[in-house]
Amino acid sequence: MNSPAMDPRPEPAFQLQWREALSVHNDAIDRDHRWLIELVDRIQSLILRRASLAQLTVALDELARYTEEHFTREEAIQRAAGYPHLGEHHRAHETLKRQLQDLTGRILAQPVDRTTLDALDDDTRRDLLSLLRSWLIDHIIKEDLQLRPWLERFPRDWNPADAPSRPPEKTHQTATPG
Ligand SMILES: [Fe+2]
Fold first, then answer.
1. Does the keyword Iron apply (predicted)?
2. What would the CATH number be for the domain defined by 25-151?
3. What distance separates the 2 farthest-apart alpha carbons in the chain?
4. pLDDT in tens, 61-81
């Protein structure tokens, strides 16, 4: 077994806990955000622990799929609420999706030993951590919180028919420690 190499510049750990201050006053969106925060946290810890590339790609794939679902739901709620910045928000969603796809493609294109992340170069590792961080801070905190004054006009559990909510399920295989 190899012990992890000493990194002279350890990646900064970043942790965001969902709390009421992050609520956009809509239960369906809040539930999605809680789950996205957990997924991002899981991916970050895989990177920091230098878990296998296989585990990382499974987690990134899950993030991509859930993000797609969440963005669709969030935009449907915005549309039903008459949110005036829908176009802008949609473009921001498209950019986030593209950034995640590009970075995932870059990771998969590397000629690395798939049993370890040690072969990921520092730049890729840092870019991935910083993308995840900007997802949380820029998307959930800065952009989505602008929805709150708009959504406060509706009951918290308001969920228009075209935006079915899927509560996060905690039965994913990577959530269970081996
Ligand atoms: Fe969101």
1. yes
2. 1.20.120.50
3. 57
4. 999 999 999 999 999 999 988
- Calculate how far, in angstroms, residue 68's C-alpha sits from the geometric centre of ligand 1: 10
pLDDT tens, position by position, 131-171: 888 877 778 778 899 999 999 999 999 988 666 554 444 43
Measure the CA–CA gap between 21 and 31, rounded to whole angstroms.
14
Distance CA 150, CA 78 (A): 9
Dist. CA 140 → ligand 1 center (Å): 5
Determine the distance separating the centroid of ligand 1 and the alpha carbon of 70, expressed in angstroms. Answer: 7
User: Could you tell me the distance, in angstroms and rounded to a whole number, from the CA of residue 33 to the centre of ligand 1?
Assistant: 6
- Collapsing DSSP to helix, strand or coil, 108 comes out as helix
E-assigned strand segments in the chain = none
Q: How far is the CA of 131 from the centre of ligand 1 (A)?
A: 15
37 neighbors 136 (Cβ within 8 angstroms): yes
Can you tell me the distance from the alpha carbon of 173 to that of 30, in angstroms, rounded to the nearest whole number? 23
The domain spans of the chain are 25-151
Amino acid at 142: K
